[in-house]
Each structure stands twice: as C-alpha cells, then as structure tokens.
What we know:
Helix content is 41%, strand content 16%. By secondary structure, it is α/β, with parallel strands linked by helices.
Amino acid sequence: MFPAPAVLTSNLVSVDFQTIFQEEYRAIRPRAPMPPIVVRFRRFTSLNTTIRLREGRVLVSLSDLLEGAPESVLRAIAHILLAKLYNKKQIDPTHALRFKRFASSAAVVHQTELIRHARGKKRYSGPEGRYYNLEEVFDTLNFRFFGGLLGRPELTWSENLARRSLGHYDAAHNTIVVSRVFDRPASPRYAVEYLLYHEMLHLKHPVRMRGLRRCVHSAAFKADEQQFPQLQEALAFIKRL
C-alpha cells in the first residue's frame, strides 16, 4: 500500500509544479493510490528529464532550463514522464507535440548550447597521436576540399578505443573528436581522412531545424560527402572494423 497522498517540495520547485504532476498522475491512473511525488531541478548540461519509482515514491529530476517554462509545457513533460514510468503505450500526441515545439524553439536550442558550453566538461587528449596528427590531416583536407577557409576547431583523439562513436563534432565546444582506434599502423590514411572530412562537413553545414525536426545531414551535406575520392574504401574499412 502507498502511504497517504503527499506533496514533497524542495527549495527549487514550486508547489504548483508538484500539483501539475499530481493532476497528470490522476489523469493517467485515475483509480490508483496517489504516491508521494518529489520534483527537483538539477543543473544538467542539457534539457534532461528523469523519473523513477523508489520505495513507493515518484522521483523526478528536471533540468533547470525548464524553470519558467509555460504551464502547458510543464504539463506535457509531466504527462510524458509519468506515461513512460507506468508503461502507458499511448502518449497523448498533443503533449508530445507541445514539448517538441518547446524543445526545438530557437530560444531554447540557443540556451541549451550556452549551458552545455558553460557546464559541460571536455577532456582532451590532443591532436597528436602515435601515428597520425589530426591537425596535419585537418590542414591537408581544408586545403584540398575547402580552399583553406574552414577555421580549425579543437581537434582531439578520444581518450579510449571507442568503437561505438568513431567520430563526432561537438558544436557547443567547437571540438572534433576521432576515436583512437584509428591511430594505428593498420588504419589507412584515407580512413582517418574520411572520418575527419565527415566531421568537417558539419562545420560547413551546421544543423538546421526543419519544422520540428533537426536536419543533421542535409542534401548539401551528403552531396559534399560524395566528393571524397575514397569514400567506398573508407566505409568498407570502417565496416570491417
């Protein structure tokens, strides 16, 4: 049995927000006992939200970027989190659309990038590897494909032999990271060049919003990617790896 209904507040969350979660809980589970609900804002580096059930209590952690969000957005978040927690197959599409519009708005995206840059911690191992220097590779590609016009971001090998993320561009920290698994004699230079070239295209073709969707690899991006002379060889090598 759940204990008597209660609203537990922290010094960061208003009672109104707790009430919103209670009301959405009742809408989703009209006949179930009301558990204590604890909602806290956290200094996350993005628009993160988490919810879990512990010892009969519903524990909610929300990014402090959501402080001051419209009530309709807060209700949408409460509905989505509670529906996921209790394995409800159908999330109200109105709530899903409302939160998606909020999260993809220019103001929120900009603020999220600022917060990631200010709070996010990046550990760099540097561009100098045992066999390849990313700065030398970048400068060569910049001259060959971009007329030397791309500003050089921070370049670094990953700290470990990452195989799930072979390379990525972090716009918040203006950093390109390439997996150290490629810094070895068995890796052909064209594979390293392709990985870096792909991430350099993100500098040329930044992420755009198309309605509510983020367009990461636009048609122009893909067309430029096809210009890499040894594209198929590089992809085949990566697939084997």
